[in-house]
Every structure is written in C-alpha cells, then in structure tokens.
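Q: Joint fold for the lines below.
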Amino acid sequence: MDQFLHDQPITPRTDVEKQAVVNRLKRIEGQVRGIQKMVEDDRYCVDILVQISAISAALKKVGFQVAERHTKHCVSHAIKSGEGDAAIDELMDVIKQFSK
Amino acid sequence: MDQFLHDQPITPRTDVEKQAVVNRLKRIEGQVRGIQKMVEDDRYCVDILVQISAISAALKKVGFQVAERHTKHCVSHAIKSGEGDAAIDELMDVIKQFSK
Amino acid sequence: MDQFLHDQPITPRTDVEKQAVVNRLKRIEGQVRGIQKMVEDDRYCVDILVQISAISAALKKVGFQVAERHTKHCVSHAIKSGEGDAAIDELMDVIKQFSK
Amino acid sequence: MDQFLHDQPITPRTDVEKQAVVNRLKRIEGQVRGIQKMVEDDRYCVDILVQISAISAALKKVGFQVAERHTKHCVSHAIKSGEGDAAIDELMDVIKQFSK
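A: Joint structure:
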C-alpha cells in the first residue's frame, strides 16, 4: 500500500478533532517513555509486558477512531459519488493490516 | 493481574540489553510523535492508519523480545526450582492479554 | 450487540456467492476435524498450534470477505439513504470484536 | 516452521485430556457448520461476523490451552535437560504466528 486514494480527508479535521486525537497520542507517547524508564530501572518483565499491552490497546482505540471518521466522511463521500468500491477496498486493506 | 511474582528479572538486564530495548522504544516514541504531526497537518486517514499499524507491529516485536528473555531467564529459573507452574500461568496470562 | 440493523443483506447473496463462502467454511470444518485426529493421535503440541493458527487465518479471511461485501452492499445502501452513521457504527463495532 | 523439535508431547496426553480438547473442537466444528447454514439462509452479514468472531475466540482458547500444557510439559522438560533455548524459540515462534 504505497499510494493512497487521497492526500487529505475529504472533510478537513476541525481543530477540536485534531486536538482530541493529538491528546490521545501524547498520552501514548508518555506511556512509551514510561516503559523506557521501567527497562532502565530493570523492572520485572511481566510488569513491562502489561504496560506494552496497554499501549497496544490505546493505539488500537485511536486507530478505530480514525477508521470510523474515515468511513463516515471519505468513504461515504466516495460511495455517494459512485466511487465506493475503490474506497472500500482501500479501507478493508488497511483494516486487515491494522488488525494483524 | 495486579500483582506479579517478582519485582525484577531473576537475571538483571545488562546495560547492552537495556540499551537495545530502550532504542527500539525511542524509535516507537518518535513514530508516535510523527503521527501527531500527520494529524496536525490533516493528512489522509488511511496514511495515518498505516503508520499506526507500523507502530503496533513494532510494539509487538518489543513485547515478544521481552517475553522471550523472560521465558529464558525468569520462567526457566522457576521451572528448575520446582516453581514452574505459577511462572507459566503468569506468562500465559500476559501473553493472552498481549495478543488481543 | 444483541440486535442488528437488519435480518438479511440488502442485496440477497447469489447462489454462486453462497457457494463460495460455504466452500471455504467446509474446508475450515475439515481442518477442525483434522486437529481432532491430531489430538487423538497425541501429536506434538507445536504441530497442533500451527494448524490452529492456519484455521484462525482462514476464518479471518472469510470474515473480511463477508465484511467487504457487507460494506459494498448494506453499508453503501444505508449511506445513500442518509442512514449511514448507524450502519457504520455497527460495522466498526463488529470489526473491533472480530479483530480482537 | 516445517520441522518441529518432536513428533509427540514428552508426557503423553491422558484420555481425559484428549477428550477435553476434542470436545471443544467438536463444539467449534458445530459452530462452523452453523455459519454455513446462516450463509445458505442468507442471514445478515453482521450476524454472521459475530458468529465468526465467537469461533475465533473459541479457537484461541483451545490454542492457549495447548500452549500452556506444552510449556508445562515439553518446554519444562527441555529446560531441565539443558535444552531450553531451542524449545523456547520454537514456542515463541508459534505464539507469534498464533497471535497474528
């Protein structure tokens, strides 16, 4: 998947929307830094794995949020314009990759 | 899983081992910051989702690296000391959580 | 998720479509029976786990095939009828469950 | 992963153990047949996807049961015999494949 159907979402993200996603990502970034400290402090492996699982779950949540908005805006727009199949194929491909 | 069998790995991580894991995590941290920028630049949703998938895959890789070391040191030590079952149950629980 | 938006797909599956999905499922059914035999023959655990992974992968493939058709027919129809949001929420919910 | 370390588990499965796994697999086989009927009856896609998710979850459960027994018997035995690393590498490889 090297090329995408578009460069930008069909409906631009509002500042409020951007901020909501960025805030979640900042929290994830902080969690990743937290694990670095756990490793440096030589913390128990299982404790670290539980934290990694928490980050994976948080990332999945952001991903589904992005996918939902994408479907409600970009894919819906494509469907209404009679170009739904390409948009749906692209969506399914990325969800397959994402849900591995 | 609120309490773990130990606070630290049975064999302390060497500086080289710590550095290897921390380096991978720093790269992941950078990737998470990269997505924040993509959101702020209002980049295409599918492009963002592909990046999120890449981070998830990188996190899984670190997780399996930690799990492998854990099994080779902590779990192996527990097995040799006749306390393998509790260690294996703890390992399986965290892997279940991790592979969701 | 106890109630669904519909009882049937908006576009009925053709006999050819039904047969294609049923054939895949019959193959999966045969693989599940194959593992029963492996267990009865006391085959090596890792060998069994590899087969279970293969079935999981095959099931995911069928699932994505069903999800794709669903999006191209039912969800697309809902979007064109101005009822896209409910259909997309339902789709996202089931994909979340499915990709656990 | 074409060749495995062994052909059989180090401790043979008892009849009770075999029966427990086979019973779970028979239930899964029945669920797969149930989906075939749903497809033939042209049932709603999301309904089918929920059932596929249930089977995936049931398969994962059997897999973890097999992996746990494997670790408690075969891997533990290998560790006590000083051949732990190969057994742990094999275990991690199959769990990676399994948790995709």
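Q: Anything notable?
A: Chain B has a mean pLDDT of 95. The interface with chain C takes residues 100 of chain B (CB under 8 Å).
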